[in-house]
Here is the input.
Amino acid sequence: MDELDFSSATPRPAAPGAPPPPAAVYKPAVALEFFRAAGQLEEVPGGKTFFQENDKPGGFFSGGSRMYLLLDGDIGLMAKGRFIGIIKPGDIFGEIAMLARAPRTATAMAKTLCKVLSLDEKQFNVALQKKPEFALMMMAIMVQRLRQAVARRAEAGGGAPDAVAEREAVFGKKDLAAFAQEINPVRMEKGKVIMKAGDTGVFMYVVHSGKVAISIGDKVVERVGPGSVFGEMALVDNAARAAGAVAEAESELIMVRRADFLTLIQGKPQFGSSILRTIAERIRAAS
Here is the structure.
């Protein structure tokens, strides 16, 4: 693999149907170094599939749920019986279903002999320990995709999803208590508006106690409880808030500035992994 160099490769989307991210966001060379850190080299002959639409993972990062970096060859993507795109060398694919613990939304088939690097749960976590900057790059790409998915739903008149999801906790009780010792929680009365769509994002919030409702327009789309985070999108891409948040009950929130957020990404790989999973789940819901 030493002869491979994606430093000048054309950036491409990491998921079917997503528009390509700006060159400043997706850095193929960073992706290559990440996958090299712990990835497994595989060769797949033309006509064989990497995964099938609706394939279900056997658990988070199970053996049947992997993400890939294409080194050489061409891969076609099919969904609902139609062709939707091509994966080219330097592309990452398969990461959304893996991170979201969800069935595949497309079939990926090798058009020619393909060489890939793939990662399962253990390998992904090992790679994050060595290359934590990859997590921030992927967050930027995925946040962009999430914003676009929300915008497309709004343009199509779909609005927010019908189901109100409970966001998964990022911090366990022990980590949450330790975090609260570093940054004192701030009390929010029931009904307090914490952030509004369109606001400049200064903080990410960690719920220490209570319950927070996340809204798009006038519709609640998620509820966030102890150990969960919200408001991280604006810290990733320095863009305006995409949603609003209101305290549904008296709550205590740990308010994390961007500098501290970046420190967490660098110093706690599991934190980066959890944020990626949260964003991936939201992409699927918005799509």
